[in-house]
Design goal:
single chain; about 290 residues; mainly beta; 5-stranded antiparallel beta sheet; 1 helix
Length: about 290
């Protein structure tokens, strides 16, 4: 599946960031539709850092101004719990929310400053508790595996951090400069880097290049399905070890990407929050 490497060098993602910033509007390969304006309530989220599908058709939207819940009709709930922190990283494991970022003006001081470290909510975002790296670290990259393990990379180090107890304690894996992480049902950890897609089948002890993969900068997984977006704005899907398949194109830079167990892909691009289901792309919530 991939060639074995013991580790990848710690290198800045300057080239990848530049490529992402240069993404242009491309012709879509699907049919795009938008719900009627009456069904939508535009919200000034500011920057969206992550979208995480929940059970059913709702998604969690991690923003600069708090965490929100959005349904398939574009109805918005939030900020959840009234928390105004900047949610830079977000994942869900067994119904528990794991997040990171920076405090807002009214964020309780016990959650950490200037960085939140790892915080956890067991009630859908209505309340949060500080767990680890409090005040020290900001995790832009967080994801959970099918076995409940949580993986993250903080802003101060390229080391993959691993937690087996929903974020309470962490151990260090290999170093790899990553733009995003995703874990498939078979336990393989995929990492998007400026040098290509890398993978580990030994719990982040070592990573190897996935030679047939496009150069992706955002990833997500559900079961053994993996989706990603490349630096040209092309969206890709792979099922198991099958070949990569193009599934559509973005309009502008994709800021966040999420794959639901149903197969629906949620993304945030110049249109707003978009749901891609087969060859139909629907703008759930338009950009302001």
């Amino acid at each position: 599946m991939f060639s074995r490497l013991r580790s990848s060098p710690c290198r800045a993602l300057v080239a990848l960031a530049a490529a992402v910033a240069a993404v242009t509007v491309l012709a879509g390969c699907g049919t795009f539709s938008t719900p009627s304006p009456a069904a939508q309530t535009p919200v000034a989220f500011g920057h969206i850092h992550a979208v995480v599908p929940e059970a059913g058709a709702t998604i969690l939207v991690a923003t600069h101004m708090g965490l929100y819940r959005v349904d398939a009709e574009g109805s918005v709930e939030g900020p959840l719990g009234g928390y105004d922190f900047d949610v830079m990283g977000l994942t869900v494991t067994d119904g528990v929310l794991i997040a990171s970022g920076h405090p807002g003006m009214d964020t309780p001081s016990e959650l950490g400053s200037p960085n939140l470290g790892i915080i956890r909510s067991e009630d859908g975002g209505q309340s949060w508790e500080p767990l680890a790296f409090t005040g020290e670290e900001d995790f832009h990259v967080l994801t959970a595996g099918p076995d409940g393990q949580v993986y993250g990379i903080g802003s101060s180090s390229p080391v993959v951090q691993i937690s087996g107890d929903s974020g309470s304690t962490w151990m260090a894996g290999s170093e790899i400069t990553a733009a995003d992480l995703a874990v498939t049902a078979d336990g393989v950890i995929y990492v998007a880097t400026q040098s290509g897609l890398f993978a580990s089948d030994d719990n982040a002890a070592a990573f190897g290049l996935v030679a047939d993969a496009p150069t992706l900068y955002l990833l997500d997984a559900a079961g053994n399905e993996l989706v990603g977006v490349d630096t040209d704005g092309q969206l890709w899907r792979r099922s198991g070890q099958a070949a990569w398949t193009p599934i559509g194109t973005a309009q502008g830079t994709v800021a966040a990407l999420g794959l639901a167990p149903s197969g629906v892909v949620h993304l945030v691009d110049d249109r707003g929050i978009v749901a891609l289901d087969g060859d139909q792309a629907t703008t759930i919530l338009p950009a302001l």
